[in-house]
Amino acid sequence: MTTSKRLPAFIAAAAASALLITGCSAGGGDSDPSQAGTGGTPEKGGTVHMLQNADFSYLDPSRGFDGGVNAFYRLIYRGLTMQAAGDADDPNKIVPDLAEKLGEASDDGLTWTYTLKDDIFFDDGTPITSETMKFGISRSWDPQVGIGSPYLRQVIDAPEGYQGPYITGDLPTIETPDDKTIVFHLKKPFPEFDNVLAQPNAVPFPEGTGAGDEFIKDVIASGPYTLAEYTPGSSIVLERNEYWDDKTDDVRKAYPDSWEFEIGIDPATIDERMIAGQSDDQNAIAGTVSAASLPRLQTPQLKDRAITADAFCTTYMSMNTTKAPFDNADVRTAINWAIDRSALVNASGGTQLADPAYTIIPPVVSSFKDFNLWKSDGDKGDTEKAQELLDKAGLSDGFEFTLDIRSQPLMQGQAEAIQQALEPLGITVNLNVIDTSIYYETIGTPSQQNDAAITGWCPDWASSASTIIPPLFDGRNIFEKGNSNLAQINDPAINDRIDEITAMTDVDEAKTAWGDLDEQIMGLSPVAPLVFSKGIFLPGENIAGYYPSTSLTDLTIIGLKDPSKG
User: Fold this and answer.
1) Which residues touch 323 (CB under 8 Å, ≥6 apart)?
2) Of 135, 6, 117, which Cα lies nearest the Cα of 71?
3) Contact indicator for 34, 548 with CB cutoff of 8 Å
4) Which of 23, 177, 246, 421 has its CA 20 to 30 A from that of 548?
5) How far is CA 450 from CA 109, 271, 410, 420, 496, in A?
6) What would the pLDDT profile of 146-184 be if each residue is shown by its tens digit?
7) Torsional class of 352: left (φ above 0), alpha (ψ -120 to 50), beta (otherwise)
8) What architecture (CATH level 2) is domain 310-534?
9) Where in the chain is the domain with CATH 3.10.105.10?
C-alpha cells in the first residue's frame, strides 16, 4: 500500500485511497486510534454515505491492494484472520475471523493449521468450506488476477511455475483434509503468518468463479454486505448480506442497512459538503480535509467534529535503478541531498498534515530507527553536497528525467516542490500525470514505469517492518504486474539480510534489525523519503463509531447516531 497498506495494486502500504493520502485526518481529539473517534454508539439502520474523489482500484480483492479499497473489502469479504476493530485497545492486533482461533504452527514453523467456524456462508447461501478458502487464496498466483497483496505468494510454498487454479489447477501445498480444516505449507518459517492471512486477497470464493474479468463489476460476498449497484467511476451501493450471521463475527458490527459511495467528486467540493453537513451529508464520511480548508475548521462546532489521525504512511519518490542515471547510487544520493523537505511538508498541507521523512519506516511502526543521512538546516536540503555527487558522477550540468504522478492536487504540489529543489542543479523534472484510478497499476508494471514515481506505503501490520522492507526492496519480488519494488533494486546484501531477519525468532531482535536495514538501504538511496502523512477527518454530525486512520479506517464499526435521519 497505502500510499500499505499498498499502495499497490499495492499500497498499501499503500495510499491511493479515499481514506488515505488522497484524503485523511487531523483536527481535535486524541491521536491514539483506540481513543480518537466520534462519540456514542451507533444504532442499527439507515444509510452511511462516503464521498470520494476516485473510484476504488478493484472490487476483486486479489487485484486491489491500497488503503481505501482494503477498508472497503472489510465490508464485503471475510478471511481466516483479520485486523482488530478500529476501536479496539490494540487496533493493529490480528484476531480470528472465519477461523475459530489463530493458526497452530508446527514445531518447525513450516506448517500452519486452521479450523473454520460453523454456519458461515456466501451471499447466495453457499457454505464457506476449507475448499472454497483454498480456492480463493490460490487465485493470488494467477498472472492476470493475482496482482494485489504479494505476501501469500512470498510465504506459502507452491510448485515451481504454479499459476493459480484457472491455469494450473490444484495447489497441493494447501491441504483440506475435511470441510473445516485447512493446512498451509510454507517456504520457510514465518512467525507472522496470521498477519499474512489477514491480507485482502486471503478470502474464500466458490470454486471455479472469478476467472478473467468476472469480478471487475460484480462480487461474491462473504461479509455483512453485498453489492447492490455499481456504476464505475460514479457510485457503489451495498446492501445487507442476509446470509451473514453476526454470531460468527466478533469484529464487524454492520450497523447501517446500506452504504452508498459517491465517486468522482472534486476534493474541494467534498470539503464544502462535509463542512456544511446538509441533508445526507450529515450521515457521510470522507477522506482527509484538504490543506486549503483547514483554516475553516476553527469554529467550535467544526472543531468538535474534526478528528486527528497520526502518520502511519510514508510518501516517497522511487528512483528506477535499472535506468540511467538512477543506476548510479551517487546520483540517487544527490537527489536525496537536494530535496527540500520543508517545501514538501508545505506542499502536503503544512505541519498539521505532514512531517519530513528521512526513513522509509514510519515512527508508529515498532521497527522505526531515527536516523537522517541527509541532514540539512531547516530540512531545506543541501545543494552543495548534491552538486559534489553529481560532479563525481560526471553530471555536473544536470540531466532530465520523467516523474510519474497521480492526477491529484496534493501529488502535483509535491512534484512541483521536487522540480524547484532540483532546478538549481540543472535537473529538469518532466511530469507524467496518470489518472488516479489506474495509477498504481501503471507504476506497478515495470514495462510502463518511467524514471521515477511519487507514491506511498503503509505497513500492512505495525508490529514490525516485515511488510515494508521486503515488498519495497527485495530484488526477488520484482514482478511484471503488481510490482511494489518500484526502484527495482536487486542487491544481494539486502536480499540476504531480509532472509536473515525474517528467520529471527526473537521478536525484539528482528525489530531492531529492520531499523538497521532501513538505514543500510537508505545509504544506497533507491528511494527518496519525502513526508510522513498525517490527516484530519471531518465526519458528518450524525456519524458514530468513526475511528479514522491514515492506515486503515474500520468501516465495519461505523453507523448513525440516529438512523431515522438516514
Assistant:
1) 451
2) 6
3) no
4) 246
5) 40, 33, 20, 20, 28
6) 999 888 998 999 999 999 999 999 999 999 999 999 999
7) alpha
8) Roll (3.10)
9) 310-534
| CA-to-CA dists, residue 273 to 50, 183, 188, 268, 295, angstroms | 11, 49, 51, 9, 16
**Rounded-to-integer distance, Cα 539 and Cα 401, Å:** 41
pLDDT at res. 35: 41
Task: Give the span between the Cα atoms of 310 and 287, in whole angstroms.
Answer: 14
Q: What is the reported pLDDT for 30?
A: 31
Does residue 533 contact residue 21 with C-beta atoms inside 8 Å? yes
* Cell numbers at 417, concatenated: 516542490
**List of the chain residues with pLDDT < 50:** 1-35
Cα 392 to Cα 256: distance, rounded to the nearest angstrom = 62
47-52 and 258-263 strand pairing: parallel
**Other CB atoms within 10 A of residue 308 CB:** 20
How far, in Å, CA of 527 to CA of 321, rounded?
9
* DSSP 8-state code for residue 201: T
Amino acid identity of residue 542, one-letter, is N
Are residues 537 and 24 in contact, defined by beta-carbon separation less than 8 angstroms?
yes
Q: Pick one of 1.25.40.340, 3.90.76.10, 3.100.10.20, 3.20.20.140 as the CATH number of 79-196.
A: 3.90.76.10
User: pLDDT digits over 18-27, tens only?
Assistant: 333 322 222 2
What is this structure's pTM?
A: 0.76
Residues forming a β-bridge with 230: 236
Closest CA to 422 of 394, 392, 397: 397
* Set of cell numbers at residue 210: 472469478
Say how far apart CA 374 and CA 381 lie, in whole Å.
Answer: 8
Residue 331: phi and psi, rounded to 5, are -65, -45
Measured between alpha carbons, how far apart are the two ends of the chain, in Å?
A: 32
